[in-house]
Every structure is written in C-alpha cells, then in structure tokens.
C-alpha cells in the first residue's frame, strides 16, 4: 500500500516533479507508485476571464492535493482540446488526436519508470473524452509492451470543478448564474491565485446564452462574448479560496481511495 498523508506538510520542492533529481524520483518510487498529472487548457474565458484559467486552476488544485498527501505532481499539461474556442483570440488548442498522442506518450513514460497509479486532475470539460481515450490507448501499450507495471497500472480522471462539494457550493453562491463556461467558480479561483486579475472584472450584460457546442464559428455566433450561461462578475477571491479548499479536500479523498484500491 502506498504511503501517503505524511505527518508534516511537504514543501513544494519535495512534491513538484520538475524540482526533483532523478535519484530522488527513484527513491520516491520505493515507497509510493502514485503521481498526479494536472491538465488544463489555454482558451478564452469570456471578456473578463484569463485565457489560462483552466490550466491555472487545475495546477493549483493538483499542487494543493500534493501538499496534503505528499504525492508527486508533474508539470501541468497546459494545452488541451479547445477547438470550439478557436474563434476567440488567444486560444491555443490541440486537436483531439494530438492531445491523445501527447497524453499517451506522457503516461507511457511514467509507466516505464514504475509509476502504477496516475491521477489526472482536469480543469476543462472539453478534455474529458480525449483523456479517457488516451487511458484506453496507454493500457493497450503498457500490456503490449509487457511493462513490469502492466498488471497494476491504473489511470484515473478527476474534474475538480465537478466534485460534489464544489458543485454544491457553486449552486449555493451563484444559482443558475454558475452557467457552463467562464463560470464564477473557476474565475473566483483564478482571482484567489492571481490578484492582478481583479482589475479585469466588470459587470456584464445578462443573461449569457446557454446551448450546444459545435465548431468555433458556430460557438462565437451563439456565445458572442465567450460566456455560456454564466455571470463571472459574481466571483470573488474569497470564494476562490473556498473552492480551492473544497476541491482539494474532495480530491485528496479520491486520491487516497485510488491509491489504496486494487
Ligand atoms: Ni474553464
């Protein structure tokens, strides 16, 4: 059973993979086979939200879970599948097939080193289908290549914004103004993480439309300012602090269950 929940909170320098040496990673693998991989997106988030919202939030939640458990956190896969947002300047997207290939290679790298449990913390709904496809692809490769971890290799996707506690609190604070994109809950978290973003907030004409998602031109026609059903002006840094705690609490339990499961 992996050893998590250390007696004192680890520093970021001991949980961030990018700050470790390879010998430290080798030692880590002696006592824990789990690792957290954050994935976000670089895409428009309405007229007041940061382009990097989904990457910033996924990384923050993943690092907070890492601090609470001592489980390593990889660098964030900040680029995601955001084809439908390409009608707005600043959006940088990977096609589903590209993202699938990137994730497959990253997960296979970790499997080759002996990581057995990969916990993917996602900040963007548009990534979900492709992440799941990448899991199916990497399971095939891990078995096909007869890697030592094959019998025990597992990947799990968690969406911080869909955890029940976050969902409930967003409903309580914002009701149906939470919407589906450029939501006040995710904007609140960015305001907590990056106070300079407060200067971009201003009231917006309400209500933002809701509806389906197709291609980028259609998206821009249906949702002219980029929002879907949301009022991000309701967001505050204090709310963001609360959402970070609720997301980390919920995902810490999910991670613990995942590491302890067969
Ligand atoms: Ni988002």
Rg (C-alpha, Å): 19 Å
Structural class: alpha/beta
Helical fraction:
40-55%
CATH topology: Rossmann fold
CATH class descriptor name:
Alpha Beta
Question: Can you give a write-up of this model?
Answer:
There is one protein chain. The mean pLDDT is 96. With 262 residues, the chain is an alpha/beta fold. It is built from 9 helices and 4 strands; from the N terminus they run ααβαβαβαβαααα. Strands 2-1-3-4 form a 4-stranded parallel beta sheet, sandwiched between helices. It is 45% helix and 8% strand. The protein has a single domain, classed as Creatininase (Rossmann fold, 3-Layer(aba) Sandwich). Strand 1, helix 3 and strand 2 form a beta-alpha-beta unit. Helix 6 runs antiparallel to helix 9. It is globular, with a radius of gyration of 19 Å. Bound molecules: nickel (II) ion.
SSE arrangement:
Elements lengths: L11 H4 L6 H10 L2 E6 L13 H17 L2 E2 L22 H18 L3 E6 L5 H17 L9 E6 L4 H11 L9 H10 L22 H7 L14 H24 L2
Parallel strand pairs: 1-2, 1-3, 3-4
The chain binds nickel (II) ion.
The site of nickel (II) ion has 5 residues, from α3.
Distinctive features:
single chain, 262 residues, alpha/beta, Rossmann fold, 4-stranded parallel sheet, 9 helices, binds nickel (II) ion
Quick description:
Helix content is 45%, strand content 8%.
């Amino acid at each position: 059973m992996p050893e998590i929940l250390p007696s004192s909170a680890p520093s970021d320098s001991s949980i961030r993979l990018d700050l470790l040496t390879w010998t430290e990673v080798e030692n880590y693998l002696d006592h824990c086979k789990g690792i957290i991989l954050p994935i976000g997106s670089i895409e428009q988030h309405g007229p007041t939200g940061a382009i990097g919202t989904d990457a910033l939030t996924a990384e923050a939640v993943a690092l907070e879970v890492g601090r609470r458990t001592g489980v390593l956190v990889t660098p964030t896969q900040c680029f995601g599948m955001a084809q439908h947002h390409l009608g707005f300047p600043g959006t940088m997207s990977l096609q589903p097939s590209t993202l699938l290939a990137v994730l497959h290679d990253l997960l296979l790298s970790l499997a080759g080193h002996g990581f057995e449990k990969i916990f993917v913390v996602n900040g963007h709904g548009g990534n979900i289908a492709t992440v799941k496809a990448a899991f199916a692809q990497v399971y095939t490769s891990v078995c096909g290549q007869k890697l030592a971890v094959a019998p025990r290799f597992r990947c799990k996707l968690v969406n911080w914004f869909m955890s029940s506690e976050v969902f409930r609190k967003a409903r309580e604070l914002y009701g149906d103004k939470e919407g589906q994109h450029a939501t006040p809950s995710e904007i609140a978290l960015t305001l907590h993480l990056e106070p300079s973003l407060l200067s971009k907030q201003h009231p917006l004409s309400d209500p933002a439309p809701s509806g389906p998602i197709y291609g980028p031109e259609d998206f821009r026609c249906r949702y002219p300012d980029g929002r879907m059903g949301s009022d991000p002006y309701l967001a505050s840094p204090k709310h963001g602090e609360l959402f970070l705690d609720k997301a980390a609490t919920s995902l810490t339990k999910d991670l613990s269950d995942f590491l302890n499961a067969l």
